[in-house]
From TrEMBL:
InterPro entries: PspA_VIPP1 (IPR007157). The lineage of its organism: Bacteria, Bacillati, Bacillota, Bacilli, Bacillales. It holds the Pfam family PspA_IM30. It comes from the Bacteria. This is PspA/IM30 family protein. Belongs to the PspA/Vipp/IM30 family. Residues 87-135 form a coiled coil.
Length: 231
């Protein structure tokens, strides 16, 4: 396969995929129904014209038949009256109407047969239209269900991939980190408070010892200054 043929096939495939994605079933079904309605309307006009033509040829055939009967009576009447020449003329005219009547009969029968066939085709087309119209509502309902189901499935699948899902996961991680930091901070404060208490206790013990030392020194000084010690 040549490179140009492969490129052509790829191009055709791409175009077909694009067209397929653009075809909304609901829109296309409505368009098909409108096309069928237009076609039915055109056929109805054609049938009406054919029926009119059938009636015209039948009327001409019947008129020719009536003139044949009239000329036949006139031929007999002329012969009865001894008007042979007039009877001959009437007979010749009768022959012309007979030829014309045969022609009109052929046209009428042909037109009638065509009109009957066209009526039959029109009836079939209308029956098909009614079937398609009933099927259209079913297909439209199925398309709507499929479209809704697809949207739901895409939403569910997209929760883990789209921005909203990622955002929720990031915020959850941040909240967990904040909770951990708060817990660690609380433990550190409790430890520091305990240390402060312990150190405070030590400082209190130191003060007591220092006070005791000061009291002892004062007592020794007082004892040294007593008169008993000087005598």
């Amino acid at each position: 396969m040549s490179i140009f043929r492969r490129l052509r096939d790829l191009t055709v495939a791409s175009v077909n995929d694009a067209l397929d994605s653009m075809e909304d079933p609901v829109v296309m079904l409505n368009q098909y129904m409108r096309d069928m309605e237009v076609e039915i309307g055109q056929v109805e006009v054609a049938v009406a014209r054919q029926v009119a033509l059938e009636k015209k040829f039948r009327q001409q055939w019947e008129e020719a038949q009536s003139l044949i009967e009239k000329r036949d009576r006139q031929v007999k009447l002329a012969l009865t009256e001894g008007e042979d020449e007039l009877a001959r003329r009437a007979l010749a005219d009768k022959k012309q109407y007979e030829a014309r009547a045969q022609e009109y009969e052929t046209l009428y029968l042909t037109a009638a047969d065509a009109a009957a066939q066209m009526r039959e085709k029109l009836a079939e087309l209308k029956e098909e239209f009614y079937k398609m119209r009933a099927k259209k509502f079913t297909l439209m309902a199925r398309a709507q269900v499929a479209r809704t189901q697809k949207q739901v499935n895409q939403a569910v699948v997209g929760m883990g991939n789209q921005t909203a899902g990622k955002g929720f996961a990031r915020m959850e991680e941040k909240v967990m980190r904040m909770e951990a930091e708060a817990q660690i901070s609380g433990q550190w404060k409790q430890t520091a408070f305990g240390l402060d208490n312990a150190l405070s206790g030590l400082e209190k013990d130191d003060l007591d010892a220092e006070l005791a030392s000061i009291k002892a020194a004062m007592q020794d000084k007082k004892t040294s200054a007593s008169p008993e010690n000087h005598s």
